[in-house]
Amino acid sequence: MQIIYILLCIAGMALPLSQFVPWLSAYGLNVPLLFQLATSNQIAAFAWADVVITGIVVAVFMVSEGRKLAMRRLWLPLSCLMVGPSLALPLFLFMRERHLAAAGPNGSFKPALLHKAT
């Protein structure tokens, strides 16, 4: 699965950036224009709303799962949300697979305690 996640990271970075970089070189970092175009019609607004909600869900999942498994360097996939969930999620899943593999079959890592029993 790790190889599949790496391939998905590459696709999740290359495809969105292949559309954004030419726009960026043509218009610069014109945030008002970007927002105007992203909401210019219902289909564009639908797509951006979906990406934003997906990004929030992915961030919550990464923080929750990362803390539960006591993963390190969670900042890396979280920062990749700047490119999009299409890069951040497969990168997190790759890191999670490596973390679980390093823990061994008996799960020798020490997961963080979420709630203390009283």
Please write out the topology.
Layout: H1 2-27, H2 31-38, H3 42-68, H4 75-79, H5 85-103
Helix pairs in contact: 1-5, 3-5
Structure description:
It is a single chain. The protein is mainly α and 118 residues long. The chain has one domain (2-103). It is 72% helix and 0% strand. It has helices at residues 2-27, 31-38, 42-68, 75-79, 85-103. The chain is elongated, with a radius of gyration of 18 Å.
Observed structural traits:
118 residues; mainly alpha; 5 helices; elongated
Short description:
The protein is an all-alpha fold and 118 residues long. It has five helices and no strands. It has helices at residues 2-27, 31-38, 42-68, 75-79, 85-103.
Taking the alpha carbons of the first and last residues, their distance comes to: 39 Å
The H-and-E topology, N to C, reads as HHHHH
Helix/strand-derived class? Answer: mainly alpha
What composes the largest sheet? none
- Whole-angstrom Rg: 18 Å
Q: Ranges with pLDDT <50 over ≥5 residues?
A: none
Count of β-strands:
0
Report the average pLDDT across residues.
90
Helical region count? Answer: 5
- Domain module count: 1
What amount of the residues lies in strands? under 5%
| Rough outline | elongated
Amount of helix: over 70%
